[in-house]
C-alpha cells in the first residue's frame, strides 16, 4: 500500500472517530436544553441547520451547488417523507434526553442495525442468512423481556430504532447525496418550524431569549451540532470501506450507555441487562459476515 493510501486511511479513521464520538457525547449537549420544550428544540434544530448546510454546500460545491439543488418533484416528495421521519427521530431523542431516558436512546441505536436487517429483507428482498435470522429473534426476545420486566414496551428505544431504520431505507432508495438531501429535508420543514416558533412567541410560551445566554447559544448552535458529525461521517465514508466504517457506529451508543449510567445516574435494571445483552449478542451475529469481509479486505491491502 502506498503512503498516500495509508494517509487516506488514517484521515478516514480520524473522521469516523470524530463523528461517532460527537454523536456519543451529544446527550450532554441536549441536557443543557432540558428547560426548553422538546418541540421548540426541534424547531430550532431544523431552522439553524438550513443556513449551516447552505454555507457548507456552497463552499464545498462552488457554482455547481445551485445546479445540484434542482431535483425531480417525485424525489422532493420522498424527501418530505424522509424529513418527517428524521424529525420524529430527533424529537423523540431530544425528549428522551430531557426526561432522563438516555439509556433508552442507547438501546434504540444499538438495535438499529438489527432493524436494518429486517427492513432490507422485507422491502429490498435482501438475503437473510441463518445467523442474521437468529440475531433478529435474539434481539426481539430481549426487547420483549424488557417490556415484561418494566410492565410497558420500551417505546423510546423502539421508536428511535424503527424511525432511523426507515429513514435509512428511504434515503437508500433516493439518488441524492446525504448533505444535499438533509438540506432539502430541513428546508421543507423550515416554514412549519418557523411558524411554530412565531406562534409560541405570540403566546409568550417560547424559551428562546428568555432563560439564559447559554441556552440561547445552545439553540443557535443546534444546526452546527446537527451537521458537523455528518460532515465528518461523509469524509470517513469517502476514505474508508463501508464494511470497516460500519464497526465505528457502535461507538456512539456505547458512549451514551456509559453517560446514562455513570454521569446521569439512570437506573440500570436486570431487565436492561437482559435486553442489552441480547442486542449485543444479536449485533455480534449480524456483524460476523461484515467482519470477515473487512478482514479479507485489510489482508488484501496489506499484501
In short:
By secondary structure, this protein is mainly α. Helix content is 81%, strand content 0%.
Task: Count structural domains.
Answer: 1
Low-confidence stretches: 1-8
Structural class of the helix and strand makeup?
Answer: mainly alpha
Count of beta strands? 0
Largest sheet: none
Number of helices: 13
Averaged pLDDT: 89
* Helix and strand sequence: HHHHHHHHHHHHH
Taking Cα atoms only, what radius of gyration do you get, to the nearest Å? 20 Å
Q: Which geometry do the CA atoms define? A: globular
> How far is the N terminus from the C terminus?
8 Å
Explain what you see.
The chain is built from 13 helices and no strands. With 303 residues, it is mostly helical. It has one domain (3-117, 158-264). α2 (38-61) crosses α10 (222-239). The protein starts with a helix and ends with a helix.
Amino acid at each position: 500500500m502506498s503512503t498516500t493510501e495509508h494517509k487516506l486511511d488514517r484521515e478516514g479513521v480520524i473522521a469516523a472517530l470524530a463523528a461517532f464520538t460527537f454523536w456519543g457525547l451529544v446527550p450532554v449537549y441536549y441536557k443543557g436544553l432540558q428547560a426548553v420544550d422538546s418541540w421548540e428544540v426541534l424547531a430550532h434544530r431544523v431552522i439553524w441547520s438550513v443556513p449551516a448546510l447552505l454555507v457548507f454546500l456552497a463552499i464545498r460545491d462552488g457554482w455547481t451547488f445551485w445546479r445540484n439543488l434542482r431535483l425531480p418533484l417525485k424525489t422532493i416528495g420522498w424527501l418530505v417523507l424522509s424529513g418527517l421521519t428524521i424529525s420524529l427521530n430527533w424529537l423523540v431523542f431530544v425528549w428522551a434526553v430531557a426526561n432522563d431516558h438516555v439509556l433508552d436512546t442507547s438501546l434504540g441505536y444499538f438495535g438499529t442495525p438489527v432493524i436494518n436487517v429486517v427492513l432490507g429483507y422485507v422491502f429490498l428482498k435482501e438475503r437473510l442468512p441463518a445467523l442474521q435470522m437468529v440475531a433478529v429473534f435474539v434481539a426481539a426476545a430481549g426487547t420483549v423481556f424488557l417490556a415484561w420486566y418494566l410492565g410497558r414496551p420500551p417505546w423510546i428505544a423502539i421508536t428511535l430504532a424503527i424511525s432511523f431504520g426507515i429513514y435509512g431505507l428511504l434515503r437508500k432508495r433516493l439518488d441524492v447525496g446525504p448533505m444535499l438531501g438533509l438540506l432539502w429535508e430541513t428546508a421543507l420543514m423550515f416554514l412549519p418550524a418557523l411558524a411554530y416558533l412565531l406562534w409560541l412567541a405570540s403566546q409568550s410560551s417560547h424559551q428562546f431569549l428568555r432563560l439564559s445566554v447559554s441556552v440561547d447559544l445552545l439553540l443557535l448552535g443546534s444546526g452546527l451540532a446537527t451537521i458537523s458529525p455528518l460532515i465528518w461521517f461523509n469524509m470517513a465514508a469517502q476514505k474508508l470501506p463501508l464494511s470497516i466504517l460500519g464497526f465505528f457506529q457502535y461507538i456512539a451508543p456505547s458512549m451514551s450507555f456509559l453517560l446514562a449510567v455513570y454521569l446521569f445516574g439512570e437506573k440500570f435494571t436486570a431487565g436492561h441487562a437482559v435486553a442489552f445483552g441480547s442486542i449485543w449478542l444479536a449485533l455480534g451475529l449480524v456483524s460476523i459476515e461484515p467482519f470477515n469481509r473487512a478482514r479479507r479486505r485489510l489482508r488484501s491491502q496489506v499484501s
